[in-house]
Amino acid sequence: MTLLELRNVQKKYGDYAAIDDFSLSVQEGELRCLLGPNGAGKTTCMDLIVGRQRVSGGQILLRGEDTTAQAEHQIVRRGVGRKFQVPAVFKELSVRDNLEVAFGRNKDPFRNMAVFKRSAGIARFDEVMEMIGLHDRRYAIAGLLSHGETQWLEIGMVLMQNPSLLLMDEPTAGMTERETYKTSQILNALKGAHTLIVVEHDMSFVREIADVVTVMHQGKLLAQGTIQEIEAHAKVKEVYLGEEGIH
């Protein structure tokens, strides 16, 4: 079943088209990787999906319903979560407190923490802690976590709301090889129960997680297919991977 569909989407800034007649269809439970050189339009595409920016033309549909004109908070309530490249955690709070704050959708963190105290919040906390593997760090102050642990905590914060669609912008940026491997395990475990769109540059990581790869170039769709098909694609090699590919 199609969860997300972009139909001939455009995003213009004056005469410049950051997204130019771009279409995309993502199936429920799929992990889609979005690749492309800098300036290809990947992050702008994510912004449009979640309502952070408005499209200049075309349609965005979530489970067949047009969300093109909806505000960001409305789209979030429809089950769309977003993790940015730079983690946004409360550094002075513990891991547990960060997850409590993220459980509700109110702007007031204290109201969210009050909602968390109900059994549903505690049960979700246990599930998320299992997913991100930070059980032994639950009382650690977030500002003292390693870079990888901070990234996993933010993934956990998004997961506290149990989104059906999870958008991630370069989740392995700055990670060690060991941290990157653990992140691939986390994302692979989320597939099926969640649908994921991941913007990433690390091709070895993409090989580990992607069901389907979409490559953008100058705001347009350049290529789409399995990782093997993408790495063998002549035009992708020319504009992104290089003639020898990325290993």
Q: In words, what does this structure look like?
A:
By secondary structure, this protein is α/β, with parallel strands linked by helices. It has ten helices and ten strands. The strands form two sheets. It has a six-stranded mixed β-sheet, sandwiched between helices. A four-stranded antiparallel β-sheet has the order 2-1-4-5, with helices on one face. Helix 5 runs antiparallel to helix 6. It is globular and about 50 Å long. The C terminus is likely disordered. Keywords: ATP-binding, Nucleotide-binding, Transport. It comes from Aminobacter carboxidus. Pfam families: ABC_tran. InterPro entries: AAA+_ATPase, ABC_AA/LPS_Transport, ABC_transporter-like_ATP-bd, ABC_transptr_urea_ATP-bd_UrtD, P-loop_NTPase. This is Urea transport system ATP-binding protein.
